[in-house]
From TrEMBL, chains A, B:
Segments forming domain GST C-terminal: 88-228
Protein's name according to its UniProt entry: Glutathione S-transferase
GO function term, MF aspect, one: maleylacetoacetate isomerase activity
Residues in GST N-terminal domain copies: 7-83
Superkingdom of origin organism: Bacteria
Gene of this entry: ligE
Classification via SUPFAM superfamilies: GST C-terminal domain-like, Thioredoxin-like
Pfam families in the record: GST_C_7 (PF22041), GST_N_2 (PF13409)
GO biological process: glutathione metabolic process; L-phenylalanine catabolic process
Length: 228, 228
């Protein structure tokens, strides 16, 4: 019985959720097929069966799992014969900590740099909801939040240092092959790539080359989503 | 031929370097004996042979290695038959990223909370150097830096969240046994435990129970250094 994957979509079915991308890469890593259900910001009633309102959600037989990290653990446990997402039991806990660090340190520094650009890629039906909810979160109009990004981008770039020191001398965080620790930051940067043309990372940054490698993985899955 | 381990010491040979503790735990994890050379802040000439001025440094036969992360990798590669510090090749890269995250996010939030307390534990010969160099780093007197710590401690506690979500339902970051990913944050918190009585972590915080487990490891090695 196939998996059903509920992912966020924007205008023209564009998919840019950072958490959705983590799950999308994890499913590809495991080589799992799925039926896709696209959900707009204002269609969260489609997720009511999951008991909460956030994508990603997967349904696998009689199991419903939400939260990208919980989905990664579920896939690892349910499909142990497929390529491992964590490499080892030790890697699972470490990847969870890295997932937490990216969510709490890198992603909050990225959001203000692209938040107004994202508006261009939100489905017209969601525009009012998105603009108002994010305006409340940031406490001012999104164009204003983003206006001084040239002054803030260095702080964002510095926040990537823990990944940079790792991937400057190996292909992926875990070594020769990708693991979920790669997909975590990949999802965050892919969110930006799909919604904003702003130059977040310089071409000579090891993060840039690493991200290009991630875009190539799984038959160019990441690259298949057009850049903004 | 035994390893020589150069570690920082303060008043009464107290050892509180966060990086020194990472190396000390790594050496214990590998079950390696060593000769100890204590180095005060103003005795950095003792390290001249290593081509730089910072502890920890180890000398193993004809190899000299400085920087706690480089030492961890050296020990893992040179003593592959001893218990692994990383659990797997994937875990090595992930632990390196975690080492980077702790250094750049948690440690800078901790330093201002304890920096004046540390003065009490610095060797009298080092006091002038320590006070002046740290005053320059923080841009004001250390007592002043520390004065508003009650307002800042919540930010520090929040920064521990990536570890907290992992150790709230497992004994160590990597699962049942400790890895270098544990020793990284342990070193940082042990630095505080040895130099300050300030209540950084509440008793009901999963980080507290995890830290107690770390203090018990390797025959109570961490606990053998008196708390401030």
């Amino acid at each position: 019985m196939a998996i059903t994957f509920y992912d966020l979509c924007g205008r023209d079915a564009k998919r840019f959720s950072p958490y959705g991308w983590r799950t999308r890469m994890a499913l590809a890593h495991k080589g799992l097929d799925y039926d896709l259900e696209l959900v707009k910001f204002t269609e969260k009633d489609k997720l009511a069966f999951s008991g909460q309102k956030l994508v990603p959600v997967i349904v696998d037989g009689d199991r419903t799992v939400n939260d990208s990290w919980a989905i990664a653990e579920y896939l690892e446990d349910s499909y142990p014969d497929r390529p491992s997402l964590f490499g080892s039991p030790e890697g699972r806990g470490m990847a969870k900590a890295i997932n937490g660090f990216v969510n709490t340190t890198i992603q909050p520094l990225l959001a203000p740099l692209i938040i107004a650009d994202i508006l261009e890629h939100v489905d017209p039906a969601d525009l009012g909801y998105f603009d108002e909810s994010r305006r409340q979160r940031f406490g001012r109009p999104l164009a204003e939040v983003q206006a001084d990004r040239d002054a803030k981008v260095d702080g964002f770039r510095k926040s990537l240092e823990p990944y940079r020191i790792v991937v400057k001398d190996r292909a992926f965080v875990g070594g020769d092959g990708p693991t979920y620790a790669d997909y975590v930051l990949f999802g965050t940067l892919q969110w930006a790539r799909c919604t904003s043309a702003y130059g977040l990372v310089t071409a000579d940054d090891p993060i840039h080359s690493w991200f290009e490698r991630l875009l190539d993985l799984h038959d160019g899955l990441g690259r298949s989503e057009p850049a903004a």
